Structure formats: structure tokens, C-alpha cells
Amino acid sequence: MSCEPSDVLRAVFAIDYETVRRDLRDALARHREISAEIKSLNRVLSLRRSATIEARWAHLMMLRASVVCSSDVVSPEERIFFASSAVGNVARYAERVGAASDKAVALSWQLDAIKERELSKGVEDWDLKGAGPPDFERLDDEFGELLGRAYDVVFNYLLNRYEMVEQAKLFESDPAAFEISEEIGRRLVAPYEPDALDLEGTIDAYFEQKYGTATLIRMRARSEELREKKKR
């Protein structure tokens, strides 16, 4: 059976500070061993992964990300992508715990009721932020802020705990720059397959709506610049 998010969080934070520090000191020398264990744990079916296995996998992912973030040969955007991917795995558990709170559940019910109301009027479902009716958008913002606080606290704490300090500073001081850099890094490290153009188009639309066309153009140019550097 799958494990509870709260159990995974407890298991992650049960890894004491001295263990984290010791493993961080040894991570560069053990990077092949760490990657091999990650691959091994990836083969464990999700329904058989206990909270202890999930916590071990998350710990290893954050160790590997810390090694990447300490490398001068990796671009800043790729470092941010690795850091965010590793730490975000744990932060999403905090988000899920927050979603189970009484306030979050009540907001979720209200959002579902508004969607049903609009569908009964023949209004099609909406995908992009800001496309819904005003009462939906207001509650959606409140719901997002509630979950975002839980996510952000754990995210920033773990970046610092695993010595990804530069990335933690950017996340705290300029979340927009962090998100944009993360997406540039994602396009380099984990680009979508050619048959997933619809998904890439949706992500482009998100960044264009949130940050403007000029920013999207800069993101594409920077991605291409870094891609060309890798070919040399």
C-alpha cells in the first residue's frame, strides 16, 4: 500500500543533522554509489514503497543535487533544476498534508461547487489561471496560498539543510527568477519528447501569461544558448 504523506515527512526529518552533514561530506566521492542506489529504489513499485524507502530515496536525491549545485561546470539553471526537483519531492508531501487540513478541504469543496455551477450553465472547464469566474479565482488564490506556505517552508528549509545555499537565497529573494531558471534547466536536463508538444505549449502559455512574452523569448534564447554550449 502507498504511504501517508505525513509518515514520509516524519521519516525524512528523522534523518538527523549529523547524518546529513556526514553524507554531504562524502557525497562527491560516493556519487556513483548514490546514483546506483537511486536507480535501485526507482525500480521499487510505488505501492510497495514504505515511508522509510521514500525518505531514503529523497535523502539520496538531495545529496546528488547538492553535488550538482557545487559544480562549476554545470550552468546555474541546471543547478536550480536539480535542487528544485530533489527538494520539491519532499515539499509536495508537505503540500498534501496541508491539503488535508480542515480549511483546505472546505476551500476545495467550495471550488468544486463553483465548477459544478458553471458547468450546469454550459461553461466549459478552464485550464489557465485567471480564466475562471471571480469567486472561483478568489478562493483558488486563497487555496493556493494555504498550500504554498507549507510547500515553501519545507522547500527552503531543505535547500539550506542540504547546503544548496545559493539556490535557497534565490528562492527566498526572487521566486520569479527561481521559477524561470528552473524551467530553463528543465528544458536542458529533461526536455519533453517530440510527441509532447501540447504539454510544452501549455507550459509556454503559463510562463507567457505570468511573466510576459519578452520573458518567454528570453527563456527560449537562454535554453538554446546553453544547448549549443553543450554540443561544443
Please specify the SSE layout and strand pairing.
Layout: H1 5-13, H2 17-27, H3 31-42, H4 51-69, H5 76-99, H6 102-120, H7 134-161, H8 165-173, H9 175-189, H10 197-211, H11 213-231
Helix pairs in contact: 1-4, 1-5, 2-4, 3-4, 4-5, 5-7, 5-9, 6-7, 7-8, 8-9, 9-11, 10-11
How would you portray this structure in words?
Helix 1 (5-13) packs across helix 4 (51-69). The chain has one domain (5-231). The longest helix has 28 residues, at 134-161. With 232 residues, it is mainly alpha-helical. It has eleven helices and no strands.
In short:
The protein is mainly alpha-helical and 232 residues long. 78% of the residues lie in helices and 0% in strands.
What is the C-alpha radius of gyration, as a whole number of Å?
A: 20 Å
* Spans of at least 5 consecutive residues with low confidence: none
Strand content: under 5%
Report the count of strand segments: 0
The helical percent reads over 70%
Tally the helices: 11
